[in-house]
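S.,

Sequence below, as promised.
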Amino acid sequence: MDMKKSKNSIGIIDADLISEPKTVHAFPNLACMKLSNYHKHMGDNVKHLLSYKNLDRYDTVYISKVFINSKIPEVNIFFEVPILLKPNVIYGGTGFFFDKAEPLSDDIEHCKPDYDFYNEWVEIEKGRKLKRVRFEYYTDYSIGFMTRGCFRKCLFCVNKRYNKVFFHSHLSEFFDETKRAISLWDDNILGYSKWKDVFDELIDTGKPFEFKQGMDIRLMTKEKAKCITNCKYKGDYIFAFDNIEDKNIIIEKIKLWRDYVNPKRRTKLYVFCGFDKNNLYDESFWKQDIENMFERIKILMQFGCVPYIMRYNECIGPYKDVYQTAKTWCNFVPSYMKKSFRMYCIGQGKAGRNPEINSMKKIEKLYPDIAKKYFDLRREDIILNKDWT
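The prediction came back faster than expected:
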């Protein structure tokens, strides 16, 4: 990259990382990493900022966030004006603008990520005695997109503005030979007409790789199943079961998939819930959505798959505790593998003193038909093929 040297001072903030309350985010902000490397090649002095103090010291400050719920201080004691209104601040990302977020300019978008960007933060966090695995995506992975876009136009998705899946970059654009694995964040790889070319590039590296956003199992074919199950795929095979309306095709494709996958390899499907496309969020919606969630969990139990509960906006509403309990039951795989929903709730503590039992009893009282149909199902009892255990 041949660029004129400018030597500006650049501050970059990953807003999700320093939002309160403090949490450990599993994934780095790719836009921040690309901005960092771009400005370093410009000859600028780049600093990863871990607070909103002293922003006036920098010629330009970039603030990026992925998640809507991450907080940005509107007024800060260190400034006379709100942070986002300061003349040297540029902000962007889906956390600010959702599907209307402006893309990075091409010269930044196609810049290799700065894989050293989070080094200082990682060292600080290690001092909190957290396990190394919490930081692996900051230290051990080449990360990027080889394709972008999706044609599904799901109303809840940040990619609904697209009409198709299209080529974005070759692997070489973000590949780092020193990293032990590759994480692809493509939106819908199986919807790309030249998907096999993408897999061939990945396979040629000899590195394990994954599609972390999940793959569209509705597009599964025998050829795709053979390719995915015979390559050096890392971790769980991840797909999605977002809508109960897709029940028949999901079952059909899981059956196809199960003809090729090693029974001992875990197949996980995101189970999206808590989103009302009509924006009513009335009692009839919540009842139907809770039932649809448990029906999808039942189907995945039968086919030896693992549900991963994904809550829209954390399912803010009268049944937030129910969704939270379903999430902790399913997303902690050992509990899901051995326990029914009822067994899990009871095992968490004594009645009246834990939210799990209270949320279970709430549904039993209001919707006894749902409780009767789903609460006592155990994976090992209803699984259709014992080889899938």
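The longest strand covers residues 267-273.

Coffee later?
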